[in-house]
Amino acid sequence: MKFDITKYVRKNLLKLEPYQSAREEFVDDGRKNILLDANENPFETAVNRYPDPMQVLLKERISFWKEVPTNQLYLSNGSDEFISQIIMGCCEPGIDHIVIVPPTFGMYKVAARTYGVGVKEVPLTIDFQLNVAAILASVNEHSKLIFIPTPNNPTGNSFKEDDIKEIIEGFDGFVIIDEAYVEFTKASSVIPWLIDHSNLIVCQTFSKAQGMAGSRLGMAFAHSELIHFLNKIKAPYNINSLTINKALQRIDEQSMVAEQVSKILSERKRLEISLSKIDLVKKCYPSDANFLLVKVDDSTLRYKQLLEHRIIVRNSSKNMGCENTLRISVGLPEENDTLIKVLINLDR
Ligand SMILES: *Cc1c(COP(=O)(O)O)cnc(C)c1O
Question: Partner of 341 at 20 to 30 A CA spacing, among 56, 250, 262, 292?
Fold first, then answer.
């Protein structure tokens, strides 16, 4: 099956001649060069040189790690930047729209709105699963992208694999499977599906389990023609060299990351058990991620009371179907202890 990228992206961008950055014009063969091409300060500061615009070395390492060819890999300044770029690249402002499945991650809608792109919402079922029939019935020729985070934020659950597959196979546009929390789940990544599904995009991030939220690095995996297109419309130096170096180091520390993840998961279990015994907690939703969605008696009141104890949680009540909920990230054991203690005291 031939994949025709021109059907899925904005026509005027296909003709775009990308900015040629100085560092792209010569081939770095690893030998020492005299760099007089980019108006940099020649005195060493560790960051006096522009970063590699195509992140070649980092992509090679990620490619080996994730088992995806480098030409199917796009790096962004956090997944947030990728979300903006894919919307900007595929959706004609004022004409096209994206499809989201609330309660869902808030950035999809915000990013679409900043580009003047419409947002169609197809709510999850009451048990927070995908309403496949409603999603597929809602799309038309102006529906360009469907965003599905799994495990989902803010609900914490994973979606059923069969449902996800049905949407990918039933929709003639890109489906973005946002796997920001994939390290925390027993379900496996859908990255291997890329081989058979040219309209699938998978994104992951260094912000959650990888412990690099402050560094801003996202990864998107997709058909090579889409990656080629994204590279043409991206800012030339979107990933800075501090981030590149930190990520190279982090990829080598995966056994430590795995240990941290398993500690976070056992803490999540402990939190879940302790919270469920507290009266003001009405429900603790099952989680596949590093946070818990918790229904309480009065979320505004409890949010404020926690704040007075210098415990900051997310009041997630404004999300569809999430009235009176708090979203609580799993912290260090002693932080979780304090949270439990404070809530038990509020209960009296
Ligand atoms: C946290 C989160 C992200 C944000 O990732 P960044 O790489 O920090 O921009 C993306 N998607 C979901 C579902 C998230 O929860």
Answer: 262
Using pLDDT thresholds of 50, 70 and 90, give the confidence band for residue 30. Answer: confident
Of 313, 188, 329, nearest to 264 (Cα)?
A: 329
Q: Is the pLDDT of residue 63 over 60?
A: yes
The answer to whether the CB of 81 is under 6 A from ligand 1 is no
Q: Please report, rounded to a whole number, the percentage of residues in the chain having pLDDT higher than 90.
A: 92
Return mean pLDDT, the chain.
96
Query: Percentage of the chain surpassing pLDDT 70?
Result: 98
Burial class (CB in 10 A: 0-12, 13-18, 19+), 123: middle
Nearest CA to ligand 1 atom 4: 79
* Ligand 1 close to Cβ of residue 178 (< 6 A): yes
**Cα–Cα nearest to 227, from 245, 248, 201, 209:** 201
Global pTM?
0.96
Q: Are 328 and 294 in contact (CB under 8 A)?
A: yes
Ligand 1 neighbour 153 (Cβ under 6 A):
yes
Phi, psi (deg, nearest 5) at residue 172: -95, 70
Rounded Cα gap, residues 172 and 156, in angstroms: 28
- pLDDT value at 33 more than 90: no
Tokens standing for 232? Answer: 């043409």
The alpha carbon of 273 is separated from its chain's Cα centroid by a whole number of angstroms, namely 28
Task: For residue 148, count CB atoms less than 10 angstroms from its CB and return exposed for 0-12, middle for 13-18, buried for 19 or more.
Answer: buried
Can you tell me which residue has the tokens 């929390």?
181
Identify residue 192 by its one-letter amino acid code. P
**Could you tell me the distance, in angstroms and rounded to a whole number, from the CA of residue 327 to the centre of ligand 1?**
15
Residue with tokens 């603790």: 284
Q: Which pLDDT score, from 0 to 100, does residue 18 have?
A: 82
Please state the atom number of ligand 1 nearest to the C-alpha of residue 105: 13
